[in-house]
Write a structure and sequence with these properties.
InterPro entries: Mutator_transp_dom. By secondary structure, this protein is α+β, with helices and mostly antiparallel strands. It has one domain (19-308). Helices cover 45% and strands 10% of the residues. The chain has helices spanning 19-28, 35-44, 52-88, 178-191, 207-216, 221-231, 236-239, 247-259, 270-283, 285-295, 305-308, and strands at residues 94-103, 121-128, 136-143, 195-200. Helix 3 (52-88) crosses helix 9. The chain starts with 18 loop residues before the first helix and ends with a helix. 33% of the residues are buried.
Amino acid sequence: MFNLYNEVIAKKRGRRTAAINLSIQVALNHIAISTTGLQKLFLGSNIPAPSTSSMQHSANVVSEIIEEYNQKDLVQKRKLIKEINILRGDNPNIINIQADGMYNNPIYSGMGKTPFQPATQCTYNMLENNTYKHSIVSTRQVSKLCSNKSEHKTKTKVKSHKGHCSANIEMHDSIGSEERWAKDCLLDLKNDGLEVQEITTDPDSSAFRAAESLFKAENTAALLRECVKYRLGPTMLNRTCKNTNTQKAEATNRAIRATVPSNVTFTRNYKGRVHTAIHNVNNGPGESIVKLCKAAGVPIEPGSRAAEV
């Protein structure tokens, strides 16, 4: 029988997925529309909409592919920093960064209303300050929400139940611990042989404590204290001596907000959508879609109208 659509070669036994089902999920990850919103568009256009379960399955598959692909892309960005430093004649292992975190709900919005933290999902990004592009070089996604609600109860520990668990911190953990998330990002840089020389954060951030704790482990706490004192000194001159800012980090947060808006909670595929936004920022919207479609096994054909656009 001849199919009227292309299929993706399956890695497992079973029916092969239609290529358009995966490519449309790649596109959905770039915008705020969920599978439910896409169904409404189909129905409003008098087109039979696919089932919710099949669309969600495709979304789950694409989300994992995007997350894995973007992690590899971030590794390449870190390697590129080393190459640029070598061409400049600088120490190849030195990197200057800006860092910032964002939450699905403002972290202080529940003050005086509830004893619990209103935010349940967090993304923390680190961007390089070595080049004018300020590429994202490390990221962490944190979530208290699990899509498997029937198995994951309030007192259930993360990853301790059957099926997939999208939560990666306990419900009682402090999601506002930027020091903890920054430390994870700094370890990514350290594992790739990069040493942070300068870090620019918001005045209310505790990310510098993560750098301090890592430096203490290497017996350079005294030097770091002097650096922190110099950077966070009482005068405006000391606070702006390097003339760096977190504007690109804030811009990245806005790009992420376009894929995970505050009025929609993506429990299952939060990380995949954030990685899509990060890949979009690092590579540009057009190139990002082309690369992610190729990673999902549904490449856009060269010379087609979509490729020309």
